[in-house]
Design brief:
CATH class of one domain in chain A: Alpha Beta
Structural class of chain A: alpha/beta
CATH superfamily of one domain in chain A: P-loop containing nucleotide triphosphate hydrolases
CATH superfamily of chain B: MetI-like
Distance between the termini of chain A: 17 Å
Oligomer: heterodimer
Structural class of chain B: mainly alpha
Number of strands of chain A: 9
CATH class of chain B: Mainly Alpha
Radius of gyration of chain B: 19 Å
Helix content of chain B: over 70%
Radius of gyration of chain A: 17 Å
Shape of chain B: globular
Shape of chain A: globular
Helix content of chain A: 25-40%
Number of helices of chain A: 7
CATH architecture of one domain in chain A: 3-Layer(aba) Sandwich
Largest sheet of chain B: none
Strand content of chain B: under 5%
Number of domains of chain B: 1
């Protein structure tokens, strides 16, 4: 595991209207690390993931991604993707979704094709490629959404409760997938309520409290 | 002839209002800036501007002494189409914006996180919200087909040239020719009902 920071957060605070949503004195995430955000509903886990991905703002303090501030960061959209608890897929087939994400990254056509086929095989979604994206189950949608991010070149994944709405079979498949991604060196930050999942894949756990304070990195 | 002229004007003005109106409505939906609520309030207010006021505003520009007088579109189809475009534009933009509000906020965030630039995001939300956009377009078509102030003021109600269904109805009624006025009124009503029906179908597809 490399020590170069993927995320470096300092004195961060973010408010929705006048209510404090997140407050974080310091956070550092290294490449290849898997970090779990744990805490009750409304404690700021999702907000923190969105802040790290530059979806929410403005905020006070600093967030650096790959050593550079989030604003106009050339790596941010190329390498990191945030996934909702219930991810959305766009109109069209699964293949359309993967190709669209690749086009957004201006990937060369031959490279994109190879990458798409490899990703589909790796994620076990070859049989879904020509299916209507709107007709997939929750587990399949979750899997395709992660595949879409990886096919487009992302290696930093911010996952909001990736297994919370899955049935037992899809849940098991997702755990295997996350372990595979971890083994391949992806940096993963995820929020979860399931202690079993957290202890299975997380290198580190960060606790969020209802008072919006983030407990400093707690060892597993 | 009057019906075709009327529908022709409506088609052109709707087209010219949709081209900027829909992308701007989508851009407003995606944009985050201070004062957005104020912009939306002003936009909604412009939908309620009476047609004669829009007509008067355009008149001041395209009349012979106006800054666009050289275009020679006063009392010509171009004048009516311009006026109707000005009438439909805020409606298209506001209805596109309001309609897209029904779109799941996750679409916009997913596009952002996947690295879509502003133009890609605008086009993608238009595609995802196409049914509400269709509704906005149909509403604009209905509005310009049924208006009388702009057509009368900027077109002059010239027979075989700028006379529309609504100005014909107004003229016939003033002359006491109620039968002709009523028959055209029925056509206008049919157009309005057809638009409403199509709009209903578009919305039903969203659910």
């Amino acid at each position: 595991m490399s020590d170069s920071p993927v995320f470096e957060v300092s004195r961060l605070s973010f408010r929705y209207e006048h209510a404090l949503a997140v407050s974080c004195e310091a956070l550092r995430v290294s490449a290849g690390e898997v970090v779990a955000f744990v805490g009750p509903n409304g404690s700021g886990k999702t907000t923190m993931l969105k802040l790290l991905n530059g979806i929410l703002g403005p905020y006070q303090g600093t967030i650096a991604f790959m050593g550079l501030p989030l604003k106009r960061n050339p790596h941010l959209r190329r390498r990191s993707v945030y996934l909702h608890q219930h991810p959305v897929l766009f109109t069209g087939t699964v293949r359309d979704n993967l190709e669209y994400a690749q086009r957004l990254k201006h990937m060369r056509r031959d490279e994109a094709t190879i990458r798409l086929e490899r990703t589909a095989e790796r994620f076990g979604i070859e049989a879904l490629l020509e299916r209507d994206a709107g007709a997939l189950s929750g587990g399949e949608t979750q899997r395709v959404a992660i595949a879409r991010a990886v096919a487009a070149g992302a290696d930093v994944l911010l996952l909001d409760e990736p297994t919370s709405s899955l049935d037992a079979e899809s849940d098991a498949a997702m755990r295997t997938l996350l372990l595979d991604l971890k083994r391949d060196g992806a940096t993963i930050l995820f929020s979860a309520h399931d202690p079993e999942l957290v202890h299975l894949i997380a290198d580190r756990i960060i606790y969020f409290t209802p008072s919006k304070e983030i407990h400093h990195d707690s060892p597993r | 002839m009057t019906i075709m002229t009327s529908l022709g004007f409506s088609l052109w003005s709707t087209t010219f209002s949709v081209i900027p109106g829909v992308p701007l409505g989508a851009a407003l939906f995606l944009a985050r800036f201070k004062g957005k609520r104020g912009v939306v309030a002003i936009l909604n207010a412009t939908m309620a501007v009476p047609t004669v006021v829009v007509g008067l505003f355009v008149y001041s520009f395209i009349s012979r002494s106006g800054p666009l007088g050289f275009l020679n579109i006063m009392f010509a189809p171009g004048g009516v189409i311009l006026g109707q475009t000005m009438l439909a534009f805020p409606l298209v933009m506001a209805m596109s914006y309001t309609g897209l509000q029904k779109l799941d906020h996750r679409y916009a965030e997913t596009l952002l996180t996947l690295g879509a630039g502003p133009w890609h995001r605008v086009m993608a939300v238009i595609r995802e919200g196409r049914y509400v956009i269709v509704q906005a377009v149909l509403a604009a078509f209905g509005r310009v087909t049924g208006e009388v102030g702009v057509s009368m003021m900027l077109g002059g109600n010239i027979r075989w040239y700028t006379r529309t269904m609504t100005t014909t109805i107004a003229l016939d009624a003033s002359k006491g020719e109620f039968e002709r006025a009523v028959s055209l009124g029925v056509v206008l009503l049919t157009v309005a009902l057809a638009i409403n029906f199509m709009s209903h179908l578009a919305v039903r597809n969203v659910r």
